Amino acid sequence: MPRYKPxxxxxxxxxxxxxxxxxxxxxxxxxxxxxxxxxxLSALDARFRNEAVGASAYDPRVLLKIVLLGxxxxxxxxxxxxxxxxxxxxxxxxxxxxxxxxxxxxxFVSSLGPQIKALxxxxxxxxxxxxxxxxxxxxxxxxxxxxxASKERSGTHAELLHRARRLxxxxxxxxxxxxxxxxxxxAPGEEALDARRQQQRVDALRREAQRTREFLSTTPARRNRxxxxxKTNITDPDSAKMxxxxxxxxxxxxxxxxxxxxxxxxxxxxTGSGSxxxxxxxxxxxxxxxxxxxxxxxxxxxxxxxxxxxxLHERDIPALIADNQMRQRDERFKDQxxxxxxxxxxxxxxxxxxxxxxxxxxxxxxxxxxxxRTATCPAGQTLYSTGAIYRVGSxxxxxxxxxxxxxxxxxCHLRAQCLRHPERTPARKVSLFHxxxxxxxxxxxxxxxxxDSPRGRSxxxxxxxxxxxxxxxxxxxxxxxxxxxxxxSKVGTQWQLFCLVHxxxxxxxxxxxx
Length: 514
Description:
The two termini are 57 Å apart. With 514 residues, this protein is α+β, with helices and mostly antiparallel strands. The chain has helices at 27-38, 42-45, 60-72, 78-87, 89-94, 102-110, 113-129, 157-180, 188-218, 280-287, 306-314, 326-329, 337-340, 406-410, 415-418, 443-452, 454-460, 462-477, 488-509, and strands at 137-146, 154-155, 232-233, 240-244, 247-259, 264-271, 296-299, 319-321, 367-369, 374-376, 382-392, 397-403, 429-434. Among the domains are: 18-47 and 56-132 and 505-509, no CATH class; 151-181 and 188-233, no CATH class. Strand 5 (247-259) and strand 6 form a beta hairpin.
């Protein structure tokens, strides 16, 4: 038999130098140096008044290190952070072998709101001194994340009142059904257990109904800028229902402005609304301390409005904000119509055994000849212009109508697919919308002209490659799948903490040393 050296599997006492566990170049090393030697945390120290009396407190620097190191590893729960401080050597090293409880960690994160923006700004100053902010192009975008609230408890005041009544009605129905039941032959213990479960269900329904009524009596209705009532949520009134590619969620839209040089987040905020138009100017203002007069701000069509473009023009801020028709004007997408018309094999809600409705021909199925001012229908017949060009709305759109001869449409074999009412419509009419008359004094038209130019398309195409990897890092690598706190202020704090982790990670990878 061969002989091998013995292996010890039991407990051992090993000498550990905690400072050596923070390896230079790692995130933990950069975080430790940054908090201890660069950041001014006097605002956090000012919260304590225990110089002469009172128990000693955990150093807020230690708590900040634990939270940021935990977020960098996807540990969001305060109980996870507490366990890491007891068993993970890097957490033990960065906390100086202190063991704060989960309650202390949760309280620290919840109360960090007033100081988080100052900390975020200080980290950006350090990154700027390292040369990580290029100031050439900023990309603004948002990501919708679920809140710590149920969307079933969301609705207008009328809808929530209706839900409370339904809950009370369901509780009364359970009670009446239970009272009407005949005596069963089961054992007395089983009957008592069943009655206790039903009573627990009734109590839960009535508590939920009472909670809903109390919320309605103490919380005013949310309204938008037009005075229309918005849906609110009982658990987290600041959150909102939002449509995403994975369905409707109850959540927040987290915003970020990212510099293109090293994908550093220069501004971060959250909004409890699915519409992001109102967040464009605040995000531009937050990023202004780290922008220059030549910094180009880019954003997708979700941020576009004539008022936003006008405000950027008045402030002389270079920007490329896409509008909803940008891709329709791009000749690179002119051949996408046949592919978009194809059915999605993974998403077809048409009931089996039923024929799909006949698709009616639209303007895209007609060929227009601007020189002859004619149009050709799918059957090959010619439609002639009525001779007039009409202005549509106040944005400069022009419309030209083309009409077919009744004799051409009368016996056409595609009549049922071409006319909305083939039994009474004599001939098809189709409209062509011409481009707007360019007005150099209109900022929105100037924006469209700039973004449609070859240089504008080249610059705007950098937006998605700048901001989307940042969201991918936070959502996938840092496991930010949802917010765990409630309220706009606390959710904003948590989002900025994750953005801090991203920026410190960039600082660590740059080889920074103070």
